[in-house]
TrEMBL record:
Record keywords, A-Z: Activator, DNA-binding, Phosphoprotein, Transcription, Transcription regulation, Two-component regulatory system
Source domain of life: Bacteria
Gene Ontology CC terms, in alphabetical order: cytosol; protein-DNA complex
Gene3D superfamilies: 3.40.50.2300, Winged helix-like DNA-binding domain superfamily/Winged helix DNA-binding domain
Domain OmpR/PhoB-type: 139-236
Protein name (database record): Transcriptional regulator
Amino acid sequence: MADLVLLTPRPAEDTSAGLVLPGLALLPHRVSVLGMDVGTLVSRGDPDLVLVDATADLVQARGVLRSLSALGLGVPVVAVVGEGALAVLDDQWPMDDLVTATASPAELSARLRLALGRGPREAGPAPDPAHGAGGPEEPEAIRVADVVVDEASWTVRAGGRALDLTFKEFELLRYLVQHPGRVVTRDILLQQVWGGDYYGGTRTVDVHIRRLRAKLGPERESLIGTIRGVGYRFTGARTTER
């Protein structure tokens, strides 16, 4: 029986671990449920394993995982994700393993057992501030016109102003900015942003584009052009920033 901590953004009245990961309620482990404040975890003392709830807010969960990696707690960290998130996970998510929220008790038990047996992943050497050597480089910020998409901090600035975007809006804008001048069909955007297992229609893309334009503001909404009957195109020349 292991001592587990679940970090979740759910409100205090909904902090049952079973609401995030139902299979966990059928396992014999001790589970403490905390908010997404890494400082609270540090003051509590080291558990055997940390679970991070990424089912509600992927951007916040990724930030927490990065903070845990930087702290080097010396315990394995496992992310709890929804099925739809599998399409967007990459090596910028520092974790030892992941499990879907719908995993059966048998699968969950096996993943936790393996993670506990392996221990935490080895962190790469700290980068040399003078030469930038050691470990993977942070992704560069992408600029098109005066819109800057910073993958390292998961922020977007337009004209120097930070935009308040949802996760899907961020992913959609990031994909468009990565392919400036290219006409991208709605089907491609659905596949790249929502994942191949998404069953919604292309109207979902249109709704998110409309919201993106509104957040970019009237002076920039024309950056996302509509190609009637086909899809969308982000205009402007792409540059990168350090």
